[in-house]
Amino acid sequence: MWDTLILIATTGIVSVVWSTFWTWLAEGRQRAAQATYIAMRAAIALEDYAIRCWQLVYSGPEHMKQHGSPLASGVPDLESMPESSDWVNVDPELANEALSFSNSVTIVQMMADHAKHLENNPFDAETYAKERGRAAWAIAAKLRTKYKLSERAYQAKLLAELLT
Fold first, then answer.
1. Could you give the CA distance from residue 132 to residue 112 in angstroms, rounded to a whole number?
2. For 70-99, how does the pLDDT look when each residue is reduced to its tens digit (9 = 90+)?
3. Do the beta carbons of residue 76 and residue 47 sit within 8 Å?
């Protein structure tokens, strides 16, 4: 009789441990997949931002020649970043860097507006756009590396003026 009770108890314990292990494993994989997806969305949004900054840097001098005024009226807005609540499974250091980036964009937008309106200097927007575009591309590259996403070497080659 005791042998039967020990067998039942042992079977129950093994079953609980086994079930817990597989649940933990499945949830870990799900968290990793979600982190990779958020990193991919953020990398794409940051690269898009860098490309929009590049457009100002690349076309700015020619626009100045043709129209006598700078192309950039301000530093571009950062768009389409994942919500901050979605970043829970992403590496905290990278999440901090990516989520804080919007604050630096806001700061340089204020600085460019100040230069344009109070110092009569409309050219700072291009300078700030170039600097923020480089930073956005660098953060996107870190996210792509950490989460083993494909690199954007061809795009980086096209953006050489911004990235150098």
1. 12
2. 877 889 999 989 988 889 999 999 999 999
3. no
Q: Residue 129: name the closest of 51, 62, 61 by CA.
A: 51
Contacts of 99 (CB under 8 A, 6+ apart): 81, 84, 87
Residue 142, H or E segment: helix 124-146
Q: Residues of 44-70 as b/e, b for ≥16 C-beta within 10 angstroms?
A: bbbbbbbbbbbbbbbebeebeeeeeeb
Which residue ranges make up each domain of the chain? 39-163
Whole-number Å distance between alpha carbons of 90 and 40: 11
Average pLDDT of the chain? 85
Q: Give the pair of three-digit tokens for residue 118.
A: 């109070």
Helix 92-118, helix 124-146: angle, nearest 10? 170
**Can you say how many angstroms the Cα of residue 111 is from the centroid of all Cα atoms in its chain?**
23
The amino acid at 44: I
- What tens digit of pLDDT does each residue of 12-39 get? 676 666 566 555 555 657 888 899 999 9
Helix ranges (DSSP H) in 68-123: 92-118
